[in-house]
Every structure is written in C-alpha cells, then in structure tokens.
Amino acid sequence: MTPTQLIPARSTSLSTRTTRAAHPVPAPLRALAALALATGVALLTGAPASAHDSIVGTSPEDGAVLDAAPASVAVTLSDVPQAIAPRIIVTNSAGATMLDEEPVITDRSASVELPALENDTYQVAWRVVSSDGHPIQGTYSFTVAAQVAEEPATDPAATPAASDEPAVGETASSTAAADPTSTASTSTDAETTDADEGSSSTALVAGAIVAVLAVALAGLVLVRRRSSLKDES
C-alpha cells in the first residue's frame, strides 16, 4: 500500500471521530447540570451570609451626642449570642480606659453599666461569640455634652443688713462714742453742781464768820458803853 493511499483513510477516521463528538447533549442532562450549578452557587453565596450574627443596634446610638451621661452601654445582635468570654471596653478621647468588663447577655443584647462619665467623646469596643460559634467584634462612639450649671450670682437682697441696734457688749461704748455732746454736757453739769455746792458752803462759812464778828463787836460796844457810864457817875 502506498503512502498516498493511507492519507484518505486517516482523513476518514478523523471525520468519523468529529462526527461522533458533535452529537448534541440531551436536554434533560443539560437541565440537570444547570440546576446543580445553580444550587451550588446558591449554597456558596448563601452560607457566609447566614454564618455569623450581625449587629442591629447599639445604646447609645453610634455618633450620638447626649446631654447627660448614659447609665449603661449595650450591643444588640440579630440572634442570641453565646455567653463565651464576651467583652466591652470603654475609653475616652485620651485613650484612657473607663471600663473593661464582661457584659451581661440578655436575649440578643450584651450590656454593661457605666461609671459616672464627664463631658467627652467615648469609644465602645465590643466582642461576643455569635450563635454559630464564630467570634464577632466592632466599635462605636458617643459624646457626652451635658450643660454645666453656672454658679448663681450673689443676691444683694439676700445679704443680711447691718442692725441699727448695737450689740449688748457695745451699748455703753457705742452710745458714748455716738453722742459726745451728751457726755460733755453731763460732765459740765456735774462740775457746775460741784461748783454751786462749793459756793454755797463758802457763803455759809463766810456768813457764820460775819455773824460771829458782829456779835463780838456788839459785845465790845456794850462793854465800853457800860465802862463810860460808870466813869461819869
């Protein structure tokens, strides 16, 4: 057999193989394959979405500005988390830790009570184990901007007025200091009275002396007169 006779035979064989491979796939098989592919894609895309719980709310709300410090913080999830080492940490704007405690799990929420907080911005970092056993975590923040009470201004009407009446211990001195004219008048009256009494005493003494002298003089005149009468007789 010559080489030229073998070539058509190979061509025929290739043509036969090509014809066999070109047979169409039955419609039921194609539908089954499409269904299997769609199911696989749905399982692959749906499994991660339902694998972990997600956060549905916080208290206070993320970014909230409060006019009073909250009493607690809480995180609410889409399902009940497991009580496996949950944690909530609260820090202020300077990074100082204000709270680092294990929260209380109640239904779908994890909450913890807060200490007294001053005006500042605070960040809440939380971590829980979701219902499917996978740990999840996140952060949110809130700001406390409570109004500071101003000190009341001093009310002049509330200031006790000075009493016009002097104290018991100050009565005498205050009276004397308040009325020097009266004191001087009293002193002058006392001196005048003493002077009058002295003048009266002096007048009485002088009168007594004059009376004694008058009596003595009268007696002397009588004695002389009697002596003269005796001499004449």
Automatic annotation (TrEMBL):
Positions the record marks as coiled coil are none
Q: Annotated region Disordered: where?
A: 1-21, 151-198
Q: Name the major location.
A: other
GO MF entries: copper ion binding
Q: Which GO terms describe its biological process?
A: copper ion transport; response to copper ion
Location(s), subcellular: Cell envelope
Please provide, in alphabetical order, the Gene Ontology terms of the cellular component aspect for this entry. cell envelope; periplasmic space; plasma membrane
CopC domain ranges (all copies): 52-144
* Metal-binding as UniProt keyword: yes
One Pfam family matching this protein: CopC
Q: Give me the stretches of Low complexity compositional bias.
A: 9-21, 151-190
Q: Which InterPro entries match?
A: CopC/D (IPR032694), CopC_dom (IPR007348), Cu-Rt/internalin_Ig-like (IPR014755), Ig_E-set (IPR014756)
Entry keywords, A to Z? Copper, Membrane, Metal-binding, Signal, Transmembrane, Transmembrane helix
Q: Where are the transmembrane segments?
A: 203-223
What protein name does the entry list? CopC domain-containing protein
From which source organism is this entry? Sanguibacter gelidistatuariae
